[in-house]
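DATA SHEET
Item: assembly model
Revision: 1
Owner: S.N.
Input lines:
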Amino acid sequence: MNTPTLFGLCAVALVGVGLYGLIVNPQPLRKILAFNLIGSGVFLLFGAIARRGATVGMGGDPVPQALLITGIVVAFSATALAVALVQRLFDEAGSVTLAPDAPARAPVEPPDA
Amino acid sequence: MTLALAVDISLALLVLAVAGWIIAVRDTFGAVIGFVAYGLLLALVWIRLAAPDVALTEAAIGGGLTGALLIGAAARLRGTEAAARAEYPGALTRMLAAILAVTVTAALAIGVLALPDPAPTLAPAATASLAMTGVGNPVTAVLLAFRAMDTLLEAIVVLLALLGVWSLAPDRAWGGCPGPRRLVDPDGVLAYLARLLPPIGIIVGLYIFWIGADLPGGKFQGATILAAMWLLVIWAGLADTPPISRTWLRILLVIGPLVFIAIGFAGAITAGAVLAYPEGYAKPLIVAIEIALMPTLVLTLALLVAGAPQRMPLQ
Amino acid sequence: MPHSLSTPDVTTPGGLLLVLAVLVPFVGMLAGMVLGGRGTRRVALAILVAGLAIAIAIADALVRSGAAVVYLLGGWAPPLGVALRADGLAVVMLLAVAVVIGGIGAYARADFGTPPGVREARAPLLFWLLLLAVWGSLNLVFVSGDLFTLYVALELLTFAGVPLVSLGGSPETLRSALRYLLYALFGSVLYLLGAVLLYGAYGTLDILLLATRVHPEPVAWAAAALMTVGLLAKTALFPLHLWLPPAHAGAPAAASAVLSGLVIKGSWFLAVRLWLDVFAGVVTVPSAQTLAALGAAAILVGNIVALRQARLKLLIAYSTVAQIGYLFLMFPLAAGLAAAQLDDAAAVNGGLLQAISHATAKAAMFMAAGLVYTTLGHDRIADLRGVARALPMTLVAFALGGASLIGLPPSGGFLAKWLLVSAAITTAQWWWALVMLVGGLLTSAYVFIVVVRALAPAPEGWTPKASVPCYQQAAVLALALGSFLLGMAVFCPVDVAGIGRAVVPGIGSP
């Protein structure tokens, strides 16, 4: 067992943990967290693969490492969009449930300047 | 078992334990705090995987900005916790989910163990072509030369996400300032930090940006630190978010991708291909693109955290 | 050394047009963001014309050379660099999307103008910016030759599509948008996981290189399964379709047309690309049968639920669920033809035509529903009396679009189903032909109900709530006519879709 394989296995376990959380937790913010866990597992696997590709003078394959930076920024953008949606839903509906037949509650007036 | 491997095993187990906590803990706020710690642990893992560029990005964005974003949201949504718990699925769903998760993990683990040895790698190809780009950091060479298209598209992705966040503004607040107005507490610890940290943070951020051409670091990591400093000043109430209708703001938001595209198409004339650089000018052009991307990235990352416009500016 | 000769990839004449097809819409988006307000719509409409011209020029380059159009970005050849490639499949999609976007743009001119007295309004500004973003992302999906660039393209498509769902801002649309976003993000992350596995096993993300390196082994199976499931979630194939109807029905009409007609075709196209080009030697006929079985279930469930809808927009949205099902019938047919060493063009062209005729017909039908809503102030199907008098052109358009969905000659839907049925009979998979027949009957039932209700005379003294501009009706009719006459493509002298198709080893070969 070497370092890349170890973290590769850790990565796929993270995917599993995130998948479980995404399915069972009804709170949207928790689903967003679970999505981030799956994402980080995928990134970590890519990082382990980059490390496996190390050569003399290079600690890892730079192509996956560069793509990882792109991936992390994209995942952050996705998280920001999802969080903004959850907050606006909360402002408008007073709840954040994803159930399709959610009761329409009286909208809560958002704090205004 | 060597000491290094023992350290790695403990780190992997710790990462998994924190991940489990994030999923299992009852309180969403607690889960978010766990996620910030998780981001920092992952940064350590990236160092162990010899990916310092990724470690910096993970710590700055994965831990820092994502954490700030989620902490604010979790605090606002505290009141919905009870309702969410009532929707928690029964034992059967949870068991099926667990079986699915374990199956997927097991299948992937088999895949990981079956990866070929020696591993295929593009490191030699990147090394061989590095000299043509004039930069010393191979990751930067991938981001801005070999696969410059991805980086250009990524700058557009963050901008598009920002448009998506802005689209969530109420109509009456369109053109206004993102986020609630923060009140100044001149003696508060936040205001103190907001006066103390930004000068240091700006220097660190610019330094990380500047060295990125040759050493670990670069525009994303540098921009994240600068964005964090700006957010700190905003949250302390020392400055307000700009109204999104301002022309200067719109120009700074698009300047990075537009300069990138302009230099890219210039390459079609001077170097024979879009996103190619004429011989000898590669490094200055790459630095020019990175400088143009900086304001775009700082503003976009910070405004993504600040959220949708909520109010018109005070006259 | 950088331009290694491991692949025969070189930039071809007209290759630069591919870069333009991707970047021109995004430049329009960036410029529109700065100009704001009315300037944004002007920029967007100018880009619609320019983009259509670019798509036509690409098609011209393809037909002239008779081979795929290729561009090596930065001059760097894969695997280190990224190539853009447009074969016949990609070019046909580029053209179709350019036409449909043009039709939607013409229609949306009336709905998304900045109101007088305001410098800039939220919904109009965002609609035009997002329309351009959807277009650039779709073009990237069609021409990108790299799995990671395609991941970025999928995310772009998601970030452009989600705000279109919640453009109205009501709690229901916000909830639909959030559900859509979570499904789409889940889909992208699975897709990325598959791409990562492929890189780990074969050391490249380039589609052509992968096609030569992929072997039937556990890693490739895992990657194929993950990427396919991820793309199915984004395409809303049964049983991952639950997010679609509320999201597509709740958006403004022009946005619904973009989402239902175009956005879902991006992830579908990528699934086709992977199955035909990357995993041709990995996927098995039973796995393709599974995809088509899900498609058959989508056709039956989607159509039956559509029949039970009380509101026109929801009916059209559920009909999309069913039509997505047809898109997946091509997989076992193409695999069956390839396994029998026969040309798979009938199955592939059938699937492609189905995608295009649905894109045009569904965009027209959603926009027709939008005009009905404007005129009546509601879209209850039981209460459509008077539509025929107030909106004769629109009703004709709806009926023509419906005819294409049913598959009546000479519509695109007819030719698509004809090709698929003939492929089903050639490969002795007659049950898919049966599914298509039942699906067509169910579709004709709800199209018939809507048209009959709309033909009922209006009550005495009834007047429309609002009048709609003639050009909006014309745009809807033009798209519907396009869909209805698409079957004439059978007379096209060259098989455009077949040009430059990568020749890949079939199942069982090394």
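QC remark: Residues 121-311 of chain B form one domain.
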